[in-house]
Amino acid sequence: MTTTAFSSPVIKMIQLVLQGLVAFVFLAAGVLNLAGMMTEEMLRLGYPGYFTTILGVAYIIGVICIYQPRFAFLRDWAFGAMVATLVGAAGTHILIGDPISSAAPAIVTLVVLVVAYALRGRRLGGAHH
Hints:
The chain is an all-alpha fold.
């Protein structure tokens, strides 16, 4: 058994905090989308207005999936979908000519998500949970 710089409980706590931050971002974005508060911005970005409803539902389902304990594949798919969404959000801002600061929240959330996901495999001898 190899030892790491951090004990498993410390890694688990860091992973849970980072995952919680990502979940908060997606839950908040889901609610804002469902409440219609993102429609104008989505139209500005070139997406149809109804897309906010689809994203809102998907974001909330994604948050549920990363916390449900029964099906590991759903957690993995949700993390993957979140990565795709964040890459798409950052890419959209950059490709329409917005300043990089507009893409920064998606980029930062993406980094936090990737670290949170990577730390999942660092707990308890490398097993995913």
